[in-house]
Amino acid sequence: MTTQRSEVIDLLKAFACVLIVWHHLALYGPMSDVVYQLAPRFIGLLFDYGLLAVEVFLVVGGYLNAKSWLRALSQAHFEFFPRLGARFQRLAIPLMAALCFTVAVTALVRPYFDHSSLSDAPSPLKVLAHIFLLQDVLYVEAFSAGVWYVAIDFQLFVMALICATLAHRWQAVTQQGSVIRKAWGMWMAMTLISMFVWNLNPLGEVWGTYFFCAYGLGLCVGSWRALGFNIHHRILVLWMILIGGLAWGYEPRVRLLVAVGVAVLLALYEATDCRPLPCLKASWIQALSNASYAVFLIHFGVSLLVSAVVFTHGSESLPANGLGMLTSFGLSVALGAGLHVAIEKQTPSWQRWLQWTAAFAATCTAVMLLT
């Protein structure tokens, strides 16, 4: 695979992006409460199963990170802190920008839109918790529906990176075997522990260990071809299905089945040398894939704004609420694309992080002073 871009990855990210936006539109209301009267099954499915899009993001994220580390792991130096800092910047800079919008929108609509989806007013502790992605660990209410995932993504990255760094140091000491195999072994061990232990505790959802079963499957598939084992891809697929089946039998979880299914799909695609698929070469799929993270960050604030307008001018109107949900989705994609180009796509740096962190803190301070 000469590049990390592929039509399958683009399609998975685009699909998961659309699904999570509609899940939150169904979950938080109030527009979905009215539309439910016309399409109860559709809203119910989004409400119950839309969150499974997270499993798609997790597996794909692990897969892409494994791909990006393979060549570096084989070199003499594998730097931990620069990679950690770069990942934090890439996650946090667009997050701070999106939170500026969401906090401002929440304060703007609060006098006219009394709804449970509105977060409480900012406080110094909340601001600091969001800046350092610690809001769930500190049991602080999030300003936006997507913030918890950003924190989990960073935790998973840190855990996987620690394993990769330990494997690299181990290889440097022993000078025997394969550093890729050492890293793969650690990732696989943590994946199995997550499947059978960590993922069974609902109280553990604030920690990356809970989600490592999905992320680790992506890591293992992404590094499989570099292991040098003479193992057919069908064996890898059967292994994942068997382990997933055992974990399902031990404790049935739909999210686990989705994660295994996505990992199997990626393994089968790997077996084809990730060759291009012309039928999936659509510019809008690639564009939505590129902007998926930005759309994920901005959509909650957009939903609040549109919901407030619809609630004020047509709270009981079925056409108004249906159109409102469609408008919210369309605006989320459009503003997400703008956020991606203007903020996320730019080269991250600590200076830019400080600038956007200061903007976020200033926005929260203004809201605290004016309310």
Notes on the structure:
- By secondary structure, this protein is mostly helical.
- The chain has one domain.
- Helix content is 74%, strand content 0%.
- The longest helix has 30 residues.
- It is globular and about 70 Å long.
Task: Give the secondary structure arrangement, pairings included.
Elements: H1 7-28, H2 31-35, H3 40-49, H4 53-73, H5 80-109, H6 124-131, H7 147-174, H8 179-196, H9 208-224, H10 233-250, H11 254-271, H12 283-290, H13 292-314, H14 318-344, H15 350-370
Specify the number of helices: 15
Shape: globular
Main sheet characteristics: none
What portion of the residues fall into strands of 2 or more residues? under 5%
Number of strands: 0
Query: H/E order of the elements?
Result: HHHHHHHHHHHHHHH
Summed up, the domain count is 1
Low-confidence stretches: none
Q: Write down the overall mean pLDDT.
A: 91
Kindly name the structural category: mainly alpha
User: How helical, in percent, are the residues?
Assistant: over 70%
Q: Specify Rg, calculated over alpha carbons.
A: 21 Å
Report the end-to-end length measured between terminal Cα atoms: 54 Å
